[in-house]
C-alpha cells in the first residue's frame, strides 16, 4: 500500500469514528404545564444534549431557548421571544447585517433636516 493510500484510509477511519449516530437518542427530560388562563410552559432534553424550554400565553406571547451542538461541533444557544413585534431570535451564531456606512447616515440626517415640500400637480 502506498503512503497516500494509508493516509486516506486513516482519514476515513477517523471521520467514521467521529460521526455520531443520533438515531438512538432518547428523551431524558420532559415537562409540560398548561394553565386555565392560557399560559403554558414546557421543557425537554435528549440524550444527545439537545435542550429546550418555552413559556408563553396562548397565541400572544412566547419566550424560550434551545441549545444543541451543530454538526461542525459549534455549540448553539438560541434565545427567542415572539409577541406583537414578531419572532425575535438571538444567538451568537446568527448572521448580523453589516454596519450602515457613514455617508448613508449623513444622507439620512440631511434628508430628515431638509423636509421635502410636496408639490400638487394641477389636473
From TrEMBL:
Chain coiled-coil ranges: none
GO cellular component, one term: chitin-based extracellular matrix
Any GO molecular function: structural constituent of chitin-based larval cuticle
Signal peptide from the UniProt entry: 1-19
UniProt KW keywords: Cuticle, Signal
Pfam families to which the protein is assigned, alphabetical: Chitin_bind_4 (PF00379)
Keyword Signal on entry: yes
UniProt xrefs under InterPro entries: CHIT_BIND_RR_consensus, Cuticle_Struct_Prot, Insect_cuticle
Protein name per its UniProtKB record: Uncharacterized protein, isoform B
Source organism of the structure: Drosophila mojavensis
Designated gene of the protein: Dmoj\GI12346
Amino acid at each position: 500500500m502506498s503512503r497516500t493510500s494509508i493516509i486516506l484510509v486513516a482519514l476515513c477511519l477517523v471521520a467514521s469514528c467521529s460521526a455520531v449516530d443520533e438515531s438512538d437518542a432518547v428523551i431524558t427530560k420532559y415537562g409540560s404545564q398548561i394553565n386555565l388562563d392560557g399560559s403554558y410552559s414546557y421543557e425537554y432534553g435528549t440524550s444527545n444534549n439537545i435542550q429546550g424550554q418555552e413559556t408563553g400565553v396562548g397565541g400572544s406571547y412566547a419566550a424560550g431557548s434551545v441549545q444543541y451542538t451543530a454538526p461542525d461541533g459549534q455549540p448553539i444557544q438560541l434565545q427567542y421571544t415572539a409577541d406583537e413585534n414578531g419572532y425575535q431570535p438571538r444567538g451568537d451564531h446568527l448572521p448580523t447585517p453589516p454596519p450602515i456606512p457613514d455617508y448613508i447616515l449623513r444622507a439620512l440626517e440631511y434628508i430628515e433636516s431638509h423636509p421635502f415640500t410636496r408639490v400638487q400637480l394641477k389636473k
